[in-house]
Amino acid sequence: GIGTPLAITGALFQAFNHAFFKAVLFLAAGIVAYRTGKWKISELGGLAYKMPFTFMATLFAIFALAAIPITSGFASKWLLYEAAIQQKYVFIAPIMLIAGVGAFLYSFRILYGVFLGENRHDSVEEAPKSMIAALFILVLPLIIFVVFPGYMLDLMKPALEAAGIESIAHTKFAIETSLAKYNSIAVLITLMVAMIPALVIYKARKHRVTSFEDNYLAGEPYELHKPAMHAANNYYKPLKKVLLPYLEPGATYYFEKIYNGIKCVSNAVRRIYTGYVQDYAIYVVLFLLFVMGWLIWI
Q: What is the maximal distance between C-alpha atoms in the chain?
């Protein structure tokens, strides 16, 4: 690892965030299963209208996982990026960024497939108040510490000092390092300003909703095709179409090299272990001669 005070602080901050947003995701999954009785994404959809609080909690958890600025996941990931750049680990920071994008994609597929799209459960209701309260308690720190990241560092300070690790300079709203300064208020304002034109463009577009029944099925039963037409089915097809031509040949090439190497070693070992006692006796004699020669030489 990087091992600097900045990296350790960021890692502890990220561990805190990870515990909370993963707890939210697991609890939300349990709530959906409890209310619908379904576990397959292909059998779900449109629950955002029926379970808005569960949907929003899941959305915030995924934002924290992906380090979107409206959650504290952004602050912890920012510290880790800073630590990598500070130590001139120029390859680690981009890898961390790509890993974050990948985590967002696989998580957003769940959000998209379960809560968005066609409503498939007319009789489903929001989770019980006790479950909603639990979700709110778990989401709240993810919101509080994005606005007040300094409070999180204050909580970690005694543990860091006990381990002999220097605390990072910070205030209630900001964290300062040798490279840059993170100000939560500036980040949130910038994000809100950037969202305004995006919302205007989205609202200006005309959306045509096409029901599943509009598709030509060649006379085959509707239910056979319904799972395949689900929004979450083959969700990564556009990404796969772009990357697969570049990744597949290279991956196959390296896997074949590894396979051939293991095969050669295995064949050599197989030739040694013949199953004949006489051969093993010769191996023992040769080993003893080698040991004796080694002892005489040293």
A: 89
**Contact indicator for 108, 45 with CB cutoff of 8 Å:** no
Bridge partners of residue 253, in order along the sequence: none
Residues in Cβ contact with 125 at an 8 Å cutoff, skipping those fewer than 6 apart: 35, 50, 51
How far apart are the C-alpha atoms of 167 and 158, rounded to whole Å?
9
Separation between Cα atoms, residue 290 and residue 76, nearest integer Å: 57
Helices (H), 87-163: 92-115, 129-147, 149-162
Please state, in angstroms and rounded to a whole number, the distance separating the CA atoms of residues 257 and 265: 13
Q: Which two tokens stand for residue 218?
A: 């060649």
pLDDT digits (tens, 9 = 90+) for 170-217: 888 888 877 778 888 888 888 888 888 888 887 777 665 555 555 555
Q: What does the domain layout of the chain look like in residue ranges?
A: 5-208, 237-297
Ranges of H-type helices in the chain: 5-36, 52-65, 73-86, 92-115, 129-147, 149-162, 184-204, 222-225, 237-272, 277-297
Distance between CA atoms of 235 and 114, rounded to whole angstroms?
A: 13
User: CA-to-CA distance for 142 and 18, rounded, in angstroms?
Assistant: 10
**pTM for the model:** 0.65
Q: Evaluate whether 67 touches 146 at the Cβ level (below 8 Å).
A: no
Closest by Cα among 212, 71, 224 to 152: 71
Phi-psi sector, 170: left (phi>0), alpha (psi -120 to 50), beta:
beta
